[in-house]
Amino acid sequence: MLQPISEFLIIRATMHRSLGLLFPLLLTVSLFAQASDTAKEVQAASASSYTLYQDLHQHPELSSHETKTAATLASRLRSLGYDVTENVGGTGIVAVMKNGAGPTVMLRTELDALPVLEKTGLPYASKVTAKDDTGKEVPVMHACGHDVHMASLIGTAAVMAESKNIWHGTVVIIGQPAEETITGAKRMIDDGLFTRFPKPDVAVALHVGNGLPAGKVGVTPGYMSSNADSIKITIFGKGGHGSAPEKSIDPIVIGAKIVLALQTIPSREVKPGEPVVVTVGYFQAGLKNNIIPDEAKLGLTVRTYDQNVRKHVLASIDRIVKGEAEAAGVQKLPLIVHDEATDAVYNDPALAKRMSAVLVEALGKDNVEQEPPAMTSEDFSYFVEQGVPGFYFSLGGANPEKYAQAKASGEILPSNHSPLFAPDAKPAIETGITAEVAVLRDLLNMPVAELRQLTASAAK
Ligand SMILES: [Zn+2]
Ligand SMILES: [Zn+2]
């Protein structure tokens, strides 16, 4: 059921009491037409968005290189009547539609794909390769579903542009580059996203995944994703012959001890029940079996929710890495570089509660689920850090039949970033558009003061 139907019911009930029969009947007909118009608009937009999705899926681009993707979106938005600015924070785009007084609401999509070799076997699978930032030729795939987000956003932009008579305020639509490297949001902000363009009262985004079947959405009040910190460590040993360990300091043994010791941070240093993940994603050292190398390199990702826990975990990593190296008698302490970091995405509970009700009305009670937080990361948090309250929700992507089979058998469907990630795009996009349109219209039609009061505690 779409939102205007409820408006129609309320107005119709009032009219029945105060006026005769003829006027309410006419009003009923006209508002009914509006509601079914919206459903038709969403369906029409979905069909064209699905074609766009297949095109985007076949032509993915790596983080910070999304030039063609950005140009495609910019031209679509321009033809819908949006005022579009390109090259904001690199390849980012900003599209503004002003429609009288009212709140400013931002809707965001990411533009980038990943260096993954697609193995879905889909007729529109990507065959693209591109040079990464180190100059290496790599396969490219929309393995995180950002193509679904872009297609939904363009559909939503079309419905909003065609229904200006039933909302007011300002819609700011952004295509953000480089989400996967957690750099794009910050670059857009540094390039004046909130000073050159209207500053939003609320920012909205969604993410598709196989955690829910297509047709459903998920809402997580409070923390939705985690703080993420990337750390690169270089251990300096002393190289030598593999047959003479007494004449060398073996960085592989030091690294191995560090890998295991790091796991004592979540298990021994943090209160049980407090979510912490310390993952060593790579351990690189050596070239030949009879040579003790000079160096070993470790790459870590660290996930937390609480800021104090985060500080403690990061300090413990420093202590353990240096301590293990010192214990082995190194002449030079390890180099520890913190190179990427992002804060947890936080959904203000009051805003999330209201948006849940809006989504229930738009999609039906059975299609809106409350979801637990995940240890994923997202640079959407940068917008919230700038004082813009955010509403970030999940979009079901799994084929409903496959989802039910997997649930029954205990099988796990391919996750985002998998070469096999293939969301059931058609129903997911239609649901995405329906959900985004409902959320945007509700936020835009709220008096500015009421919206600011609702989100007062959300801005962190
Ligand atoms: Zn991703
Ligand atoms: Zn993603």
Please tell me about this protein's structure.
It is a single chain. The chain has helices at residues 3-18, 22-58, 67-79, 146-162, 184-190, 251-262, 264-269, 307-327, 349-363, 381-385, 400-409, 425-444, 448-454, and strands at residues 83-88, 92-99, 104-110, 129-131, 137-139, 169-176, 202-213, 217-219, 222-223, 227-236, 240-241, 276-285, 291-292, 295-304, 335-342, 346-347, 368-370, 390-398. Strand 1 and strand 2 (92-99) form a beta hairpin. The protein has 460 residues and is an alpha+beta fold. It is built from 13 helices and 18 strands. Residues 1-21 have low confidence and may be disordered. Bound molecules: zinc ion (2 copies).
Sum up the structure in keywords:
single chain; 460 residues; alpha+beta; eight-stranded mixed sheet; four-stranded antiparallel sheet; disordered N terminus; binds zinc ion
Task: Report on the biggest sheet.
Answer: 8 strands, mixed
Mean pLDDT: 91
* Oligomer status: single chain
Structural class: alpha+beta
Widest beta sheet: strand line-up: 1-2-6-3-7-18-8-17
Tertiary shape: elongated
> In terms of per-residue confidence, which ranges show pLDDT below 50 for 5 or more consecutive residues?
1-21
Which distinct ligands sit in these coordinates? zinc ion
Total count of strands = 18
Tell me the Rg in angstroms: 25 Å
Number of helices: 13
- Percent range of helical residues: 40-55%
Distance between the termini: 34 Å
Strand residue content: 15-25%
